[in-house]
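Step 1: inspect the first sequence and its tokens.
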Amino acid sequence: MSVNAELGHRLDQVRSLMRERSWGVLVAYYGGQHNMLRPDPIMLMTDYRVLGPSVLVIPLGGQLQLIITPPWDLPRAREAVTAAAVNAVNETDLVSAMVRAAAGSAGQVALAGTEVMPVAVARALVGALGYKPADASQMIRSVCRTRQPFELSRVEKAAAIADEGFRHLCEIARPGMREYELAAELEHAMQVAGSEDNFGLMATGVHNVAVRAVTDRRLERGDLIVSEITPCYRGYFAQLCRTLALGVPSAMQQQKFDLLLRAEDAGLAQASPGRPSSGIAGAINDVIAAAGYADYCRPPYMRTRGHGLGLGGVAPSDLNDTTPGTLERNMTMVIHPNQYIPETGYLMLGDTVVIEDGGPRLLTRTPRRLFFKEI
């Protein structure tokens, strides 16, 4: 099935839900600031990434309209989007263009993307319509919570890029190198492999308290390098979390990393269709708590046990023991029992998976072990 056919199936689902709610038109807004945890409703419906504030107008019947800014991006937009009439305006004219496109539709106007819409734009839209539109953000997320085949292939490619990035990191990391130099090498290797972007965090030291943005610190023998590598391929993200020791790790470091391995195994065992999303975090926490670290299974010693991943963290949201919802076939997410442990500092282990009928399939292929380089 082609990308357009898969997007057409998604559009049919959206319109069916609009019909149930008596919505005459749905306006999807996005501001152009792409984020691995925030879904972009315009790209989810058109496979086009906007560069500035833009709207997609979806009538209950008839042709879609895409209104973009900045105007100079119009040729790219028209080449990329064939299922909608595409026009461009200056940002100051976006609200009036939005209202004109939605005018004349029977039924209520619904709006997706309010979480990123500037207050001034929202007020202007409400003033022009004369009423507050229905909130469609959750409805868009519900339709897009699982990956279409073309989306899954992109997450798989992003996962392969993450694997290549970590392989290169292990190859070149050495004492005396600055953290930002290592991060730059990692970025370059992944761009060569096809990455468009990377949400990267890293920390180095003998006792890290968390992962963070890189600094000018020089690597030293005995350091643990903890890395969260999240490349983007054609708009879709995958994530790999791993730990590398500069030198042979101590017995204590290996023992505590093995704890993370057991925790990840427990979380993966819960990652099947029909099971609660919260079960993944619960299983991970049970393993770590049983080892004596129950008090550390909360911030600031960890943040979450994973989250939805792909084009924004649509579903599930952060994997904690209170996360709502049920796992479904073809959801993609990262599962990571990343954890601060008082004896060793922060350790990282995590993989991108797709939920399948027989359980999770790991898309990241880097071996799940504590890596080290003999220095």
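Step 2: inspect the second sequence and its tokens, then contrast the two.
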Amino acid sequence: MEKINPAIFKEYDIRGLYPKEINKEAAYEIGRVFCGYLDKKNPKIIVGRDTRFSSPELSGAFIKGCLTQGGEVSDIGIVTTPALFFSVNLLKADAGAMITASHNSSEYNGLKLVEEKAISISPKKLLNCLRTGSLNNLPRSKNKEGFLKKIDILPSYVDFLSSFAKKEIKNQFRLVADTSNGAAGKILKLLLNKLEISYWPLFFEPDGNFPNHSPNPLEKKSQQKAKELIIHRGADFGFVLDADGDRIVFLDEKGKAIRGDLIIAFLVDYLAEKSNRVLTDSAASRIVFDAAEEKGVKVERVRTGHLNIEAAMREKEVFFAGEVSGHYYFKDFFFSSSALLTLIHVLNILSGLRKTLSRALEPYEKYFHSREYNFKIKNQKTAEKIITVLKKKYFGGKQSFIDGLTVEYPAWWFNIRLSRTEPVIRLNIEAEEKFLLQEKIKEITSFVNAFH
């Protein structure tokens, strides 16, 4: 345990600063313990990585740890997280590991771990194994020594994704595609060429320093280049992906970034069938519920995070889920998120509507929604204090605690929650009238800022 900093075991994944918090020694030990946790003779494990400068070293160390325990490892190289999940299912592997820190900046790295069928594993489970010592002193495998092979899954992955596309989208769109110098460039090029869709590429070159902008597509600076190119080229729309290619942010033909909950409502409206179930997070607009109600579909809010949403989807056989952050999950994609399958569904729908993206989304812009406000905090106790006081202050509204605090009034509502990946508290507010939204933004942000 002394080789591993327990702080890297987050709620959703393993993540930390490289090499201070996560390094090759930690990755090696995690690989060994991971194989022990799987408790299978010579487990078949798929390993992929993003483009970070530290990913090859961490991937190599993790693989070495697996091999010492008899793991049969398939290294699929630089891929997106959805491609890793696809590979675990395609190859019927026992487990998979993606070396990535998702949308975090270049000095971070980490691991996303899954079992068979790409079922996400809680990092806390591995941490408990380390703390109890039940797997901490694993001997070298008594089974045969593990072996390593490298395989290319991209052709199969692109074929799988393209099977969802309608023929009508061929030669109908001109897109701007920004992959943030992350892992999606090669896959996206193969996919768009196969679908015969014209596009202008931005930052397809893999570069773990992310020299052009942050790998977080929600940041305005990350959207700026795509916005400029959309306007300059007269593109139909554009999008920005994060470093490991599982999140997507759409920009319409005017370069305006589209909120994730509007895309959720849009997809629910055109993909859902009566009796379907949909999941979304606590920050999502009421428009998601309005769209679902029109279709006779039940919507449920769940705790933010891929691990929570995937588990709830599997338990309830949910066909679709979405988060405001740009994650969209599909039953047809192993109950996991897929940015590129989301793109294909949007293209399919627009090909039938014959409308611009902004026109297609107009019916869903019914409410006035704040941007997400992020407040840096000293520690979790500060966040808990803020939430406790807000709970008392807004006692007259309907309150729920699925994820932080949500308070609903007839004409407005808000959600405030602690991030599980960054030292920030996140605030979202929505109202039926613009003046009311502005009033509540001023009121609540002033209150939160008073704690700094």
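Step 3: confirm your contrast with the notes below.
The chain has a mean pLDDT of 93. The domain at 157-364 is CATH 3.40.120.10 (Alpha-D-Glucose-1,6-Bisphosphate; Chain A, domain 3).
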